TrEMBL record:
Residues 1-20 form the signal peptide. This is VacJ family lipoprotein. Pfam families: MlaA (PF04333). The keyword Lipoprotein applies. Keywords: Lipoprotein, Signal. Belongs to the MlaA family. InterPro entries: MlaA (IPR007428). It comes from the Bacteria.
Length: 264
């Protein structure tokens, strides 16, 4: 089961079903301080990395509708019905189950010491951490690393390709989409777990990250002149940080990079 990476899961609202054709194709409703202004007609890409912008915007519009109808309410219910302590234990277990894939990708990226560190982390957290429920990093255990097959392909020299808004997975590009699919098959644990359990694991992981970003997604949608451009910018910044192309680890979610484009 392909793992949902943090930013993909952050944008679960951006991709939870296939795009349906709509009469206002290529149009985006934007909000201003005084209320709603007429839809913006997208006649040309606003970013050179996004030649498929018109189609991507339609996917985002549809997925926002699906998120409003099902995903956000599920995330709110999860938050209200499951305590924070229990949610943290669930998150730790999910992270622990992915450690073998992290170790494999570290090795493929030419980082054998990091791979060994992740193996030790998996062993420690699976035993002393009671199946991964408790992360022993806080007690001096090996720190958690973020390594996936998309990063591996980048290290091997594959280019980004065009920006994509993918149904179910959200913001991506051809390299990262390939990496997301392959990453799930790299984890040996997946082959010892029934298909239903793997699907459930992916669903819970996505639900957990969606719950942690309820306010963030609400602010992006309600406080942006162009939510699409803002999501695109945030995803690209975050992925650049994970790939080592920038030294900035934090994103300013209050910044609205799409505002100038929305006013054109």
């Amino acid at each position: 089961m392909p793992r949902i990476t943090p930013l993909l899961a952050l944008c679960l609202a951006s991709g939870l079903a296939a795009c349906a054709a709509q009469p206002n194709a290529g149009r985006q409703m934007v909000a201003s301080a005084n209320g709603t202004i007429p839809p913006m007609q997208v006649t040309a890409p606003t970013d050179p990395t996004d030649p498929l912008e018109a189609t991507n915007r339609r996917v985002l519009d549809f997925n926002f509708t699906v998120d409003d109808a099902a995903i956000r309410p599920a995330a709110v219910f999860y938050r209200n019905s499951v305590g924070s302590w229990t949610r943290t234990r669930i998150r730790n277990v999910l992270n622990n189950l992915n450690e073998p894939a992290v170790a494999a990708n570290s090795l493929l990226q030419g980082r054998p010491l990091e791979s060994a560190q992740t193996v030790l982390r998996f062993v420690f957290n699976s035993t002393a951490g009671l199946g991964g429920m408790f992360d022993l990093e806080q007690f001096g255990g090996p720190p958690r690393l973020e390594r996936d097959f998309g990063q591996t392909l980048y290290r091997w020299g594959l280019p980004d390709g065009p920006y994509l808004m993918v149904p179910v997975l959200g913001p991506s590009n051809p390299r990262e989409l390939t990496g997301s699919v392959v990453n799930g098959f790299m984890n040996p644990i997946s082959y010892f777990i029934p298909l239903g359990a793997n699907l459930g694991r992916g669903a819970v992981e996505g639900l957990d990250v969606r719950e942690r970003n309820i306010e963030t997604l609400d602010e992006i949608r309600n406080g942006s002149l162009d939510p699409y451009a803002r999501l695109r910018s945030l995803w690209q910044q975050h992925r650049d940080s994970e790939l080592g192309r920038t030294t900035t680890d934090s994103l300013d979610v209050l910044d609205d990079p799409g505002a100038p484009a929305a006013r054109r």
